[in-house]
Design goal:
The chain has 288 residues and is an all-alpha fold. 28% of the residues are buried.
Length: 288
Amino acid sequence: MLLAFGYIVVITAVLGGFIIAGGSPALLMHPSEFIVILGTCVGMLIIASPKEVMAALLKDIVGAFKAGGISKKEIVDLFKLLYEIFVLGRRNGLIALDEHVSSPSTSTIFQKYPSFTHHQDRVVFLCSALRPAIDGKVKPDQLKNLLEIEIDAKEDESHQSVMLLGLVGDSLPGIGIVAAVLGIINTMAAISEGPEKVGEKVAAALTGTFLGVLFAYGFVNPLGKRIAFNHRDHFTYFRAMVQAIGGFTTGMSPALAIAVARRSLPQTVQPTADELEAELKNSKGGSA
C-alpha cells in the first residue's frame, strides 16, 4: 500500500504543479505518445528477457505492492521455530527431526508458525538444509558453506528482474525522445494547416519527452529500488537461518545458535536480546 501511495503522490505533484501553472490535464492526453512509449517498453522486455525472468519480474512487481519486506514478528517466529527444532535435535538426536523435515505440512512444530509455513520457499530451504545433517551426508563444518553458496546463487538469480527494470528505466528517456521525434515529423507534415494545428502537434510531441522522463525517474527506477530492498530483506531472512543452522550443527547450544543469528540481522528487524530470550522461554522447546 505504501508503494501505491508513493505513486499517487508523484502523480498528484506533477499534475498539481501543471494545473497551478495554468495547464489542463487534457493537454497531456495524447494516445499516440502512450502507445509508442509503452509498446516499445513491452517489446524491450520481451526481447531482453527469457520467460522465466519475465515471470519473476511480474511476481516481484506484485510483491512490491503487497508487502514491504520482512517484519520483526516474522524473525521472532523463525527463531522460535528453529529453537524448538534445535532443542528437539539436541535432546533426542538429529534423527528425531526426520518426521518434521520429511512432512512439514503435518509437523506439530512447523504448523505453529504460519508466518513461516505460508512461504513455501522458506519451508523448502529449511528442510533441505537440515536433511544432510540428519542423514549424516555432510560434515557439520561443511554445511554452512554449502548453504551460503546456495543463498549466493539464489541472490544472483534474483537480481535479474532488477536489472531488467533498470534497462527499461535507463531507456525510457530515449524512448520518449523517439516519440517526440515522431511527433515533430507529423508536425512538419501538417505545417500548412496553420499555427493552431501545428501548436497541437508540437504539444503532443513534447508530451512524449515528458512522459519518457517521468516514467523513468518517477515510476520505473523507484520500483526497481523497492524490489531490490525487498530482495535484500528476503535474503537477510535466509542468511539468519543459515547462521542459526550452521551454529547448531557445529556444536553450539540452541540458545547460542539463535543468539548468533540474531546478531547478523539489521537493527530494523533485530529483536533485542531480552525480547528474544523472553520469546524463547515461552516456546514449547523450553531452555537448553
